[in-house]
Structure formats: C-alpha cells, structure tokens
Amino acid sequence: GSHDSFSFYIDEASPVGPEQPETVQNFVSVFGTVAKKLMRKWLATQTMNFTSQLGAGIRYFDLRISTKPRDPDNELYFAHGLFSAKVKEGLEEINAFLADHPKEVVFLDFNHFYGMQKYHHEKLVQMLKETYGNKMCPAIFAHEVSLQYLWEKEYQVLVFYHSPVALEVPFLWPGQMMPAPWANTTDPEKLIQFLQSSITERRKKGSFFISQVVLTPKASTVVKGVASGLRETITER
C-alpha cells in the first residue's frame, strides 16, 4: 500500500486545502508561491503516479478527498495540504490498469473528507458507479474475501468509505472495516514498538487492518528542515 497515494500530483499553483490550520493559511498568504514550493516538499509522500504505483505492486490506496473553495464546477480533488488531481481522473487511471489486468484487485480507502456536503458524497458515489460498475465487491464479512472468491465473481475493487454514507450504499465498506492505527512519531524505535503492540488488534477477526509503517514529521521537524523536505529529513535518514 502507499500513504497519501495521490500526492505525486500535488499542484503548487492550487489554493491551500480547507483542512489546514490558520497558521499555514497565513504563511502562504504572506510568502505565496515560495511557501507552496516548500509545502510540497513536505506534503508529497510519493514520487510515482497511480499507473507507476500499480506497476510496482501497490494495491492499497490511501485517498483523501476535498472540495475546492469557490469552485463553480463543484469538482472533487485529492488533497493533502494542497490540492492534487481531480478524483475522476485518478479513478479512471486505476480502472485502465484493472481493465488490462482482470485478475488484479485494488483496495480504495477514502478515509478523509474535507469541505464535503451530502451532495458531494452523492457525486462521489455516482462517480464510483460509473467508473467501476460491477467490478466493485459489495460489503460482506472480511474473512469471506479471498482472491478465489473475487475472481469467481469478477470483482476487482473494494471501496472503504469513512463516512456514515457507507451504511446507505451496498458497495461501500464501512471505514471501521479498515482500521489504521497511527504512531505519529519521528522516532523509528517508537514506530516499531507501536507496530508490535498493534499486532494483537490486527489478529481480530472481522476486518482488514493497516500497519502504518511511516514516520510523521512534527511541526518542529518541519521548521528545522523547512528547505530540505520530507525525503532528506525523514525518509533517507
């Protein structure tokens, strides 16, 4: 799986996402494009687009969706601090891979929604229907899902949706079926301890489970390495 899977596409020319705190909003309003270039260094957690990730073996995608302020088209975008690609384009890119590889299965985890009203959720559900149609596996008991089962039914997509909307749509798996405990640390040793302690949770039957093997920069980490970025400050170390 990949973390903030869409972040390769982050657009430095886009507005700041609505989930960002006022301090970040003020920082960008003062320093403009320079601020956004620095932000991208910390927000882009991937160097590959969806097609390249799929080719490299990624099958779980961590997706965060947002509306854009004052957007007359009410488009939906992937977002992580700054806006990324349009959701429709990303879904279609994944679907093109699935069409060429009918035995492959992907997990789409829609786990954060920003600035979304009921009609935005309805729009996203309709988008999923139009893009994947009968490829989507309806929500059942997790332990019943095997590759053999999915192949027999010709299902290729499991959609996890962290919103009450999931309870109203048969092909949306409720968010609690894909728990993802988060260590929230920059210390590798603390991360390993956290992952080891979460193994007991992973063994519980009835759901899938994510082990987030990722380090997360703190505000102080960003301030110290503001010009170097995530890769040099965290990843390479």
TrEMBL record:
User: What are the UniProt keywords, alphabetically?
Assistant: Hydrolase, Lipid degradation, Lipid metabolism, Transducer
Q: Give one GO biological process term.
A: lipid catabolic process
Q: Which GO terms describe its molecular function?
A: phosphoric diester hydrolase activity
Keyword Cell membrane (UniProt):
no
Q: Which GO terms describe its cellular component?
A: synapse
Q: Which domain of life is it from?
A: Eukaryota
SMART domains for this protein: PLCXc (SM00148)
InterPro entries associated with the record: PI-PLC_domain, PLC-like_Pdiesterase_TIM-brl, PLCXD1/2/3, PLipase_C_PInositol-sp_X_dom
In this protein, which residues make up the domain named Phosphatidylinositol-specific phospholipase C X? 1-162
Which Pfam families does the record match to this protein?
Answer: PI-PLC-X (PF00388)
What is the protein name for this chain? PLCX3 protein
Q: Which organism does this record belong to?
A: Eurystomus gularis
